[in-house]
Design goal:
alpha/beta, 15 helices, 48% helix, three-stranded parallel beta sheet, binds manganese (II) ion, TIM Barrel, single chain
């Protein structure tokens, strides 16, 4: 097993340590003057854990092709090894989210032990009724949970139940359902029937959830279908989650919105109603681009975190959220890409934590539009990177994760062990 030693991380932190201490001291003094409790912010950043999906560790692709980078994880154990590396470098990714059937564990005990050895646990399990699997009786070509035929729906329901059983054996506590069901042409489906079937199918799945489990219902406006999607938006997901009862929640994937959608407002509404279950992070320019988090619209991400910070503090009826990166990597090393995403998420969160909520509330009450914007943007313009470095330094993670990844030759090690042509299961 490839494991990065704590001593190696410390050794590589050493030359950068003095400069970091100067920068952290400067920022701490500045924040203290602004009445911000630095230790409180550091604790919140430290606690923030982001799950890595098992399908994000290999080369991504487009419908036109895929470029392999070598050293991709060949099995679940190697995927755990890669998530373990991200966690060792950052201290902020202690969970792996499995996709069934791409990652069915053969030896549950061995898989659990491998994860525990890297300090990892199992986040939400993900079902897949958007592809046909070998030996499957009915095709999902015309839908799964929404299909016109009860037999097809039953098969899809049974798959979801199976995913829950697998998740249970690993210690997961939630299932994410993303439904690709939809239509390509007007006249192809009856919208009301499709939604009704979907609701009944989801209800049936909810009934098999263990007591302490949650179900997350993801939505997406288009793709793979281009005329209609059964669960097209947050409203439809919210409606279904309400119909399914207290264990069902809406999941927001940042890329699953039409351009310019005000996602932060969606987040606020869902939190207010106690129905926001989790988040899939990525970034995009045009659609579901699955780009590195924060690479295109970091300000938008920050505004979303502003609503999350307010919402998590003020809506105790909403349970703790599940955080996951859901991105693809077509031209970057996936592990470096994920390190950039983790950093961007924490940066946005840290900046949102710096917003003076009391002052903002006063500005809003006084209709002081200018001051409200100033408060938000002052927080956004603060360089919070010394805070992230300090948090990592304290827990023995890397001051500079990507530099450490490169200096310790992690990709080269994987190339040697796994070969140039290795491929990861997934899309
Ligand atoms: Mn997603």
């Amino acid at each position: 097993m490839i494991m990065l030693k704590k001593e190696d991380i410390q050794y590589l932190n050493q030359p950068r340590l003095e400069q970091h201490q100067v920068e952290f001291k400067q920022l701490s003094e500045q924040l203290t003057q602004r009445n911000i409790e630095v230790e409180t912010v550091l604790n919140k950043l430290n606690e923030f854990q982001i799950a890595i999906p098992s399908w994000a560790l290999g080369a991504g692709g487009t419908r036109f092709g895929r470029y392999h980078f070598g050293g991709a994880p060949r099995n679940l154990f190697e995927k755990i090894e890669d998530v373990g590396l991200l966690h060792a470098l950052t201290g902020n990714s202690n969970a792996i989210s499995l996709h069934i059937p791409w990652d069915i564990p053969e030896d549950t005990q061995a898989v659990k032990e491998a994860a525990a050895a890297q300090g990892l646990c199992f986040d939400a399990v993900n079902s897949n009724t958007f592809q046909d699997q070998g030996g499957q009786k009915h095709s999902y070509k015309f839908g799964s949970l929404s299909h016109v035929s009860q037999e097809v729906r039953d098969q899809a329901i049974e798959h979801n139940k199976e995913v829950i059983r697998i998740g249970e054996s690993l210690g997961s506590k939630s299932i994410t359902v993303w439904l690709a069901d939809g239509s390509n042409f007007p006249g192809q489906t009856n919208f009301q029937n499709a939604l009704g079937h979907t609701q009944n199918s989801l209800l049936e799945i909810t009934r098999s959830l263990p007591e302490d489990w949650k179900m997350f219902i993801e939505y997406k406006p288009y793709e793979p279908h281009f005329y209609s999607t059964v669960i097209q938006d947050w409203g439809t997901s919210f409606l279904l989650a309400n119909a399914c009862g207290p264990k069902a929640f809406t999941l927001v994937d940042l890329g699953h919105h039409l351009p310019n959608t005000n996602i932060e407002q969606i987040v606020a509404t869902l939190l207010m109603h106690g129905k926001l279950g989790g988040f899939h992070f990525n970034d995009s320019k045009y659609g579901d681009d699955d780009l590195t988090v924060g690479s295109i619209q970091p300000y938008k991400l920050f505004l979303i975190f502003n609503e999350l910070v307010y919402g998590m503090a003020n809506n105790k009826n909403n349970p703790p959220l599940a955080w996951m990166i859901d991105a693809s990597h077509n031209t970057k090393d996936p592990l470096e890409d994920l390190l950039q995403s983790i950093e961007a998420i924490l940066e946005a969160y840290a900046k949102a934590l710096l917003i003076d909520q009391n002052a903002l509330h006063q500005a809003q009450k006084a209709n002081d539009v200018v001051y409200g914007q100033e408060l938000i943007q002052n927080a956004y313009k603060t360089d919070v990177r010394p805070l992230l470095c300090e948090m990592r330094q304290r827990k023995g993670a890397a001051l500079q994760p990507i530099l450490t990844f490169r200096a310790t030759k992690q990709r080269e090690l994987r190339l040697q062990n796994r070969g140039m042509d290795s491929q990861a299961s997934g899309l």
